[in-house]
């Protein structure tokens, strides 16, 4: 069993079944040197190099590229710290944005900014995850913008009522038991020392466990030769557990991301990471 995507407004069909196993395989610790790290030798060979840098370079070009009326995302997109400001923006996401009246993660916020500059939102979502020569603009932008927060401390707020509501939705999703096996995220991730197929599972409901996982995503995935985002990670977990498709940028996806990010507060971002 392998893991893949994280997705977006509501779960189609309303089922939650195998959420626990999906997140289990997705968020296992992968830091170099750990005994359960299958990529330790690969990382040692490459040192500080990470193929995600190719996505970062492309993402920077996309961020600066002139679009409608000669304006770029750098000229118009506010990620929460002011228009065009990227340094340490990611470690404060998801957050509430007054201009949309919604809590947004990085990917849903980018969709807002890009469509305001005339991009076709449906086309962007259709190509939200790259495959071979068909690269995703969203993944490239995420790689660049996450790198802008490397080394920064996660500081996700719940000050706004909508942020608290999104957090509670994500927390409820994390503990909600459903499906043929009556699983929840917490089935695998609310106790220490659990494993799946010899892979150690992080205790995601605790700050230490959440930091182990959240600080190294998004990441370049060696087995696919692609850079993958957090929404990709969650969504593919859902798919492999036979859950209904998680819609990209949905309240459920953003809520789960906010729950994990806030739990990981105080951790230092090391993403983009390198995964198996």
From TrEMBL:
GO BP annotations, alphabetical order: sulfur oxidation
**Top-level class of the enzyme under EC nomenclature:** transferase
Write down the required cofactor(s). heme
A molecular function (GO) term? metal ion binding
What residues make up the catalytic site? 237 (cysteine persulfide intermediate)
Residues that, per the record, bind heme c 1: 77, 113
Where would you find this protein in the cell? Periplasm
- Keywords tagged on the record: Electron transport, Heme, Iron, Metal-binding, Periplasm, Signal, Transferase, Transport
Q: Which residues bind heme c 2?
A: 185, 188-189, 237
Name the Enzyme Commission number(s) assigned to this protein: 2.8.5.2
Main localization of the protein described in the UniProt heading: periplasm
Q: Out of the domains of life, which is the source?
A: Bacteria
Q: How is the cofactor bound?
A: Binds 2 heme groups per subunit.
Task: Quote any Pfam family the record assigns.
Answer: SoxA-TsdA_cyt-c
Bilayer-spanning residue ranges: none
Q: Where is the Cytochrome c domain?
A: 58-154
Its Gene Ontology cellular component terms are: cytochrome complex; periplasmic space
- Indicate which residues the UniProt annotation says bind substrate: 233
Catalyses which reaction(s): S-sulfanyl-L-cysteinyl-[SoxY protein] + thiosulfate + 2 Fe(III)-[cytochrome c] = S-(2-sulfodisulfanyl)-L-cysteinyl-[SoxY protein] + 2 Fe(II)-[cytochrome c] + 2 H(+); L-cysteinyl-[SoxY protein] + thiosulfate + 2 Fe(III)-[cytochrome c] = S-sulfosulfanyl-L-cysteinyl-[SoxY protein] + 2 Fe(II)-[cytochrome c] + 2 H(+)
Q: How does it assemble?
A: Heterodimer of SoxA and SoxX.
Q: Which family does it belong to?
A: Belongs to the SoxA family.
Q: Which NCBIfam families match?
A: thiosulf_SoxA (TIGR04484)
Q: What is the protein name stated in its UniProt record?
A: SoxAX cytochrome complex subunit A
Organism this protein belongs to: Denitratimonas tolerans
């Amino acid at each position: 069993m392998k893991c893949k995507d994280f997705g977006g407004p509501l779960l189609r069909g309303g089922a939650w079944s195998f959420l626990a196993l999906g997140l289990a395989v997705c968020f296992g610790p992968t830091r170099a040197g750990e005994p359960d790290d299958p990529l330790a030798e690969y990382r040692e060979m490459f040192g500080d190099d990470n193929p995600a840098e190719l996505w970062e370079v492309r993402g920077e070009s996309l961020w600066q590229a002139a679009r409608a009326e000669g304006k770029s995302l750098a000229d118009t997109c506010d990620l929460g710290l002011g228009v065009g400001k990227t340094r340490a923006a990611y470690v404060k996401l998801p957050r509430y944005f007054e201009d949309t009246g919604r809590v947004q993660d990085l990917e849903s916020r980018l969709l807002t900014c890009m469509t305001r500059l005339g991009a076709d939102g449906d086309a962007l979502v259709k190509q939200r995850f790259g495959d071979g020569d068909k690269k995703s603009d969203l993944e490239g932008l995420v790689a660049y913008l996450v790198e802008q927060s490397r080394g920064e401390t996660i500081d996700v707020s719940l000050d706004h009522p909508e942020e608290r509501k999104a957090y509670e939705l994500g927390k409820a999703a994390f503990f909600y038991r459903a499906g043929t096996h009556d699983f929840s995220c917490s089935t695998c991730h609310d106790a220490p020392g659990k494993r799946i197929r010899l892979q150690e599972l992080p205790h995601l409901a605790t700050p230490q466990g959440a930091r182990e996982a959240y600080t190294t995503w998004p990441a370049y995935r060696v087995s696919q030769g692609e850079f993958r985002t957090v929404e990709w990670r969650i969504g593919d977990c859902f798919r492999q557990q036979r859950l209904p498709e998680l819609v990209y940028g949905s309240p459920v996806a953003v809520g789960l991301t906010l729950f994990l990010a806030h739990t990981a507060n105080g951790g230092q971002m090391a993403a983009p990471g390198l995964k198996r």
